[in-house]
TrEMBL record:
Statement: the UniProt record of this protein carries the keyword Repeat: yes
Record-linked SMART domains: BTB
Species name: Paramormyrops kingsleyae
Domain of life assignment: Eukaryota
Domain BTB: 461-524
Gene3D superfamilies per the UniProt record, alphabetical: 1.25.40.420, Potassium Channel Kv1.1, Chain A, Regulator of chromosome condensation 1/beta-lactamase-inhibitor protein II
Chain segments carrying region Disordered: 1-42
Name of the protein in its database record: RCC1 and BTB domain containing protein 2
Amino acid sequence: MNLSGGSERRSDRAPSSPRRRRPVSRRVRSQGMKWDRRGTPSSVSSAFYCVLNAFVRRLRDAVVFIKQCRIITEKSAVDVRQDGLHFELGSMLDVGKWPVFALLPPEQRKVIRQACVFGSAGNEAIYVTINDEVFALGTNCSGCLGVGDLQSTIEPRRIDILCGKKILSLSYGTGPHVAIVTADGEVYSWGHNGYSQLGNGTTNHGLSPAQVSTNLLNKKVTDVACGSHHTIALTSEGEVFAWGYNSSGQVGSGSTANQPTPRRVSSCLQNKVVISIACGQLCSMAILDNGEAYSWGYNCNGQLGLGNNGNQQTPCRIAALQGINVVQIACGYAHTLALTDEGLIYAWGANSYGQLGTGNKSNQAWPILINMDKERMVEVAACHMSHTSAARTQGGQVFMWGQCRGQVVVIPHLTHFTSTDDVFACFATPAVTWHLLTVDGDDHLTVAQSLKKEFDSPEISDLKFLVDGKCIHVHKALLRIRCEHFRELLNERDGDSIEIQQFSFLVYRAFLEYLYTDTINLPPEDAIGLLDLATFYREARLKRLCQETIKRGICEENAVTLLSAAVKYEARDLEDFCFKFCMNHLTAVTQTQAFADMDHDLLKTFISKASSYGAFKN
């Protein structure tokens, strides 16, 4: 729908200077052609020469671009290692097997870097994107999504307080409650708090993440684990703190009184260095730096591995593992798996679903070696919400046993999966994650993500734009390839800086960032300026993206303003959208100041179109 009545072109665009000719290589001259004094073969038309010249320039730019991408990618990989973020940004975290993510469109799923699925039916999830934004979706029982209310949602909702925090560890309880550890060593918790499992000294549910500060404020926490209604945390100094429900001594305080705030688990761990922690429903586990394993809490199924069924209110060393170096422990609902440095698996505890993998369903109060008769094991997996067990070999084979979709599997069964996570997505009840899903890491970035990382980085840039007194650092080769305007501009001038006066810093920076990322990083209210730039530079795709961004910010107050901008910049799709919005909210729109200030010609056209639309019918 055209409200402009005609085409309006910008006349302030500077004419381009004649392009300088580049010498033709000697190799081409040696082909036996006749050449005129300008260096142009007489048998070749000037049009063909221009095409050939343009191709050579693009080829040269592509070579420079590839070299810069290579440098950027290698540098970014080093940066990732130095930051301690060990993940493969180039890979997509496969969350498609988890039903809670089924409604997410592919473009949202492909940017997920970390994810956790929890809840009594696997119907709640929290995930982190490659931009370190945190989102949640699901039924939101007890406020466990951390979005500030109790409303369930099938659309992801952003958890603002956690964005940019770089989550290192995440665990959840049965309530559920959720606890996370950030890269700064801080602990945040939210959700169910009937037993003080949030560690804030109260029993009030937490609807939003809040930092757990008591006794942890000056500590750098590295890991967190949750049981049904209790939480334990591990510090960088090898200390363990615990809080919450303590009916069976799972907090390790020496009593059965609930613990409202973090309290250090001392007793026989007092002068020892703990390197790993885990929780079952009502028990807790720890591994020391010397490979010893300790357990405490509920023990009626033998899940502590102490050879008896008595609860323990303080940590006890698992004597049956004397001389065995344990490197990982995973806890199921009431059973435990331990992986040794030799790649062997020991299991103990409840076994009514065959979750110990012993070939029978008898409980075991002592650790028993699982007869895998396979290659070395490198990972064991279990979750305190289920009776399922899984393990992965050094060669990548994945085994599962225990309760598998209602079936009792008493010995490890080889699957076609490549990850233990898939076992819990497809066969566990409920289908929840046993740990925080994270993209596997080999410290590489894709070219696209490397370029995004290097935008406005002065280290290896070769050009800077000066806008409103501020610098934006870029790479000439990329600009030539991505934008016709820059291809002409940079071929006509040398130098390492360009001053821009006709656009604001915010708009021009967003434009340059778009060339690196192919996305717009501007709120809808600022995107009109970028639409102006896109029209001026004749960037068709950018213009389409601007229109989509602007649409998201339309309201009754600004609808006429956006309509006027759409007409001015010949944004037909946005023009139609704004006009239809005005028709659907005609009374409110016509009472706004923007409508009163509307250009006379545009108002006349608007009324005519509205009449044709049937807006004034009785």
